[in-house]
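Lab notebook page, bench 4
Experiment: in silico fold of construct C2
Operator: M.H.
Input chain length: 340 residues
Purpose: comparison with the prior construct
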Amino acid sequence: EPDFVTPWNVRQACIRSLEQGYTSYTANSGLLELRQEIAKYLKKQFAVSYDPNDEIIVTVGASEALYVSAQAFIEKGDEVILPNPSFLLYEAVLNLAGGDIVPVDCKMENEFKLKADDVAEKITDKTTAIILNSPSNPTGAVMDKEDIKAIADLSMDHDFMIISDEIYEKIIYDKKHYSPAKYSDNVITINGFSKTYAMTGLRVGYLNANETYSEELFKIHQNSIACANSTAQKGAYEALTGPQDEVHKMVNEFKNRRDLIVSRLNEMGYETVNAEGAFYVFPKIEDPDFVKKAADAGVVTVSGAAFGSNGAGHVRMSYANSYENIEKAMNILEERVVNG
């Protein structure tokens, strides 16, 4: 998670809501004024239109949105195309729903970006959905516009759903984020405030989808959650409508850290793609004992195999830590693991 503190204006909004006694349920779909601001943001940022009354649901983080999407639409035997490697929660929610996972390798030679041609090869008459995640956890890959649009076209041609997890869309470097919702009606877009505004513990996210999808999503949400935390929603409203200076500072700092960790890893001989978003790198490290050696030396990393078979021979490292600590960690790896 981001190592930054939630911006003060957001914390103030939460404090005010508590001082004013605003601790009751909100509408099941979330505060109307928050949904209206989300609709404005989507229109401005991606040129897509959603009715805040019927097509936007405020959720308990992006995690609930993922769970609701799987429960609403994935049945036993349905095939769901999943990037390999990908975030662990995707496999978990699909397994709970009974879906069959169809992995698509995101190759290092393509900077771990999911390619439309590879997706097309996996489509069958059982394909119900695909999960996209750009920028990606665990690789930091940002998909190209051509592939986003081509996969959106495939979803229309073959009538399957795109579940697009865009939680890192603001944490992106020298690139532009493209949402498949601009190119297809068959999309559930998932986003939130945890990463962009360092609000992880407040647990507030949202999903947007056409009314047909939203009606089914709402049934699961309403009967399992009731509504997202009212105080957190007040904070989310302030996050969207207030100054964005802290977001820009955070992204710039992440970029500096990305540049440092990529440079140092490559200098150590660990081939590392120049991740274009999120706050992870996915270096090629084929030593099966690396994670343990690093941990014994005081540096925590995660085996890439935890994120899918195509992650084997890689390690995920997060740079959601201070520049000084990353520099220290790289020095430790060089001195005690590479040269030790």
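Observations: The first helix runs from residue 8 to 19. The mean pLDDT is 97.
Next step: discuss at group meeting.
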